[in-house]
Write a structure and sequence with these properties.
263 residues; alpha/beta; Aminopeptidase; 25% helix; globular; Peptidase M20 dimerisation domain-containing protein
């Protein structure tokens, strides 16, 4: 006799499409002010998006008797990250087992209104399609996860694992000292090491179990200056760098061949 499969305590959670559109409308209205491209002089004010999310969750926050722990993690003025925790029963704040919902960011890439058929800084709803800067990258994700955390607070299911959502600043511009790097180095999300994390951002429109990371490094090739009429006496630094990159690339593909499950 097989044991009966108990339904998940999360199976009864529902999200209201109208509430989603309402919240996303507010977030998209701030997209003009959270464009991120430092080279163009565009520095986002993520606090504008955070304000709408905290307004939504305030009635369910711990200071108002609710279950949600809402914390702004600010390392640069006006550019907070937002951490929201629905506590589980296993362990304390720093030792609990968690499910992390991270990666949804509060900034957007710049939009040129002249290249859009609609106002990119205002949400347009046409049937089941939504248009506006940030609907998929990534304010739409922020709205969905925020409403999930609200739904948890309203339903109040008893969970063993805590659910931790982290909305991050400074994702699009590559700045350091502002966003998730500081959340990690400050120890503010150490509890996520004890569980599964889902990175919720736009990609190729389907779930994936892994993506390429990034590691910055520098290669300096030093040549020897000589007259162009006597090239045999000079050393071409560009050729040196090209040879070195060729060796590095070949060794990389030898050490890290394609995974059998790569699509």
């Amino acid at each position: 006799k097989r044991d009966a499969i108990m339904p998940s305590p999360l199976s009864s959670l529902t999200l209201d499409p109208d509430e989603y559109v309402s919240l996303l409308t507010k977030l998209i209205s701030e997209s003009r002010h959270v464009q991120n491209n430092p080279r163009q002089g565009l520095v986002p004010r993520e606090e504008l998006v955070v304000r709408h999310v905290t307004d939504l969750l305030r009635p369910h926050a711990s200071e108002n008797g609710g279950p949600l722990l809402v914390e702004e993690l600010t390392y640069v003025e006006g550019r907070p990250n937002l951490k929201i925790t629905y506590p589980g029963s296993e362990g304390g704040e720093n030792g609990c087992k968690c499910t992390g919902l991270i990666g949804s960011h509060l900034d957007v890439v710049p939009a040129n209104p002249e290249s859009w058929d609609r106002d990119p800084f205002e949400l347009s709803v046409e049937g089941d399609r939504l248009y506006g800067r940030g609907t998929t990258d990534c304010l739409g994700h922020v709205a969905a996860v925020a409403l999930l955390m609200k739904a948890l607070a309203v339903a109040g299911p008893s969970l063993k694992r805590s659910v931790v959502a982290l909305f991050i600043a400074a994702e699009e511009g590559g700045e350091t000292g502002v966003g998730v790097d500081m959340c990690v180095s400050s120890g503010k999300i150490d509890e996520l090491r004890s569980g599964t994390c889902y990175w919720i951002d736009s990609a190729d429109s389907q779930p994936c179990v892994g993506t390429a990371g990034a590691l910055q490094w520098h290669l300096k090739a030093t040549g020897r200056l000589f007259h162009s009429g006597l090239p045999h006496r000079g050393i071409n630094s560009i050729e040196l760098a090209s040879e070195a990159l060729s060796v590095l690339q070949r060794r990389f593909y030898e050490d890290f061949p394609p995974h059998e499950k790569e699509g």
